[in-house]
Amino acid sequence: MRRTFALLTAVLATLALAPVATAQATTPSSSRTGCGRPAPFKTGVSTDTSIQSGGLTREYRVHLPASYNRFRPLPVVLSFHGHKRTSEYQEQLTGMSALNAIVVYPQGLIGTDGESAWEGAPYSAAADDVQFTRDLISTLERQLCVDSRRIYAAGKSNGGGFVGVLACRLPDRIAAFAPVSGAFYPQSGACNPPKRAPIIDFHGTADTTIPYAGNPAKGLPALPDWLAGWASRDRCRGSVSWSDGPVTYQHWLGCSLAHVKIDGLGHVWPSTKPNNDSATPTVIDATPIIWQFFLTHPLH
After folding, report:
1. Nearest to 208, CA basis, from 230, 231, 183, 185
2. Using CA atoms, how far apart are residues 159 and 56, in angstroms rounded to an integer?
3. Which candidate, 52, 78, 251, 273, has a CA 20 to 30 Å from the CA of 235?
């Protein structure tokens, strides 16, 4: 599957709305930047902390790379866990703390079924997780040397569904989005983004938790229908696709929308090594593909 990754990398580069040289190629223009300030967290390790949002204490885990420099802006990746999971689980699952970025793992609140969840699901808590995300981004910009044009969001399952909500409501703060096995419930509400939202989506055809073909009883759309909705919103001009073994890659023309379909894959975060979701390796690694997509999509 090395050929798959090489081809994906090449295609992702063509999807960029504007070419860039490196992750540190731009200087943040936000007045909230924390560049120059001593970091409140240790580098090279993960720290659990919290902020106040909507009258609630909201928790998250933040990982600063060992190379963090308070004078050099870094991208931020927000990584949202799935239903019943934790920020620590998401960190272990995705391996995103190895990225040259400030990686943040927010913790969902306990929902109506007694399990952690994110806004947009029928079992989520009555809390404004979108506002929490806004507040979290603003806090990170004040405390750390953040490249405000390179803030990204990824998530698994219910967390992936919430990433879809953020694509609808925060594309003016978040540059690109990556749902994995996303649960796109109708409780998410109407989607009227103020601007185009670059998205790369991953889903397995053998996912029985969030079926690729959808689940009408739960209001879950078929993935082709959900993607068609975004193609319409982002004013795409048709799509092209190619396959390499069980992996089919599809991208739309005239916009930044991509989809990776893996035949026979269940409800897991794709990884070529065993992870917390599955002891059986997948044919591709989602994390480096997501990172490559993110790097080619600064905020415009």
Report:
1. 183
2. 20
3. 78
Q: Rounded CA gap, 209 and 262, in Å? A: 15
SS3 for 291? Answer: helix
d(CA 242, CA 259): 11
Mean pLDDT taken over the chain:
92
> For residue range 189-236, what is the model confidence (pLDDT) as tens digits?
999 999 999 999 999 999 999 999 999 999 999 999 999 999 999 999
Tell which residue, 182, 154, 108, 183, has the closest CA to residue 287: 154
Separation between Cα atoms, residue 163 and residue 170, nearest integer Å: 10
The 3 state secondary structure assigned to 117-185 is: ECCCCCCCCCCCHHHHHHHHHHHHHHHCCEEEEEEEEEEECHHHHHHHHHHHHCCCCCCEEEEECCCCC
Q: What is the pLDDT of residues 155-165, one digit of tens each?
A: 999 999 999 99
Task: Give backbone dihedrals phi and psi of 208, rounded to 5 degrees, phi first.
Answer: -95, -15
Q: How far is CA 132 from the centre of its chain?
A: 16
The whole-angstrom separation of Cα 156 and Cα 179 is: 6
Residue 217, phi then psi, degrees to nearest 5: -65, -30
Q: Which helix (H) or strand (E) holds 290?
A: helix 286-295
Of 268, 289, 288, residue with least CA distance to 156: 268
**Amino acid of residue 227:** L
pLDDT for res 23:
36
Continuous segment of H or E residues that includes residue 110: strand 109-110
111: nearest Cα among 85, 137, 93, 79: 85
How many Cβ atoms from other residues are within 10 Å of residue 6's Cβ?
10
